[in-house]
Predict the 3D structure of the following.
Amino acid sequence: MSRILLLVELKGGNDGLNTLVPYADARYRELRPAIGVPRERVIQLDEKVGLHEKLQPLMESWKAGDLAIVQGVGYPYPNRSHFRSIEIWDTASASSQTLNEGWIARSFEGVSLPKGAGVDCIVADTNALPSTGPELRTIVMQDAENFLRQAQNLKDAQGMGDGGNPALRHLLAVRHEINAAAAGLRDKLRAAAAPAVAYGQEFLLGRQLDVATRVITSKVPVVAVKVALGGFDTHANQAPTQERLLAYLAASLATLRNNLIAAGRWNDVLVMTYSEFGRRAKQNASAGTDHGTAAPQFVMGGGVKGGLHGAYPSLHDLQDGDLKYTVDFRSVFATVAQGCWGLQRDYGLRQPQKLGFLA
């Protein structure tokens, strides 16, 4: 059975230590005397770690066993540049490698997808790199209403002659295919029912998840949809900023879950968060954190085996003040490619780690 991947990018580098909190470790308090999450504000998941209290809306999914948290995700020789590190994640490259194609597109090399649908991926934010490549047809659509207006105004160039020019003929054929895909998507979205529960509109993610929900519930046969929430680059005064973002993220994902359950589509979707890096273990002088390395990923869906997966990085064995990753992100992607699309991919890893978060 194939699933749709709903990829949620947390832009800026979300601080994993204050998301999945090692509340029982005294070293955590030493490293973060001002910004550490107090024990009484942690939702304990086991005797060592717990979620920030602002993630409370995710506990329904946790208790139902369809929320997995993969701990300590990162990669060797980490890069602390926003632009380069997100490129590494989006292309599933090694840190010394530069690739032009996204990891989702790379997953479908040599795979023939049904052409009738006209579109394989929908990106509802601005970063389309994960699905960029010749294998996949991607439509970038940040706003359903705007897209519907633009699709209505598309004029096909069928009546336009190519003057015997093969390059122009190819361009006109591509344009015709794009217009046909946009028109087909327009009709599906028009017919789609509004989500059962409306998304909060405090951030653009709400509008993006509305688009994602309509795409999924109207059964557009895509392999992936991508959304994003920005603002996680918390160098100063981190606590209030991150808390607001985590609260919104959790509420939005809980709403998404309820909407997809109501539409009978929760088993057909895999939701996965990712960020370019975590933050440094020690707080800085501005009550914030600087660019770091490993962090947790959330994975949700009807076919997910919930619980904690992978090992939490040690706070007593840091590398240049940073957490040492325990799970290579490409192992997570390999698990997703197998579990979502039935594809065996290793993304350059000799032996991807077996992660048990998918049935």
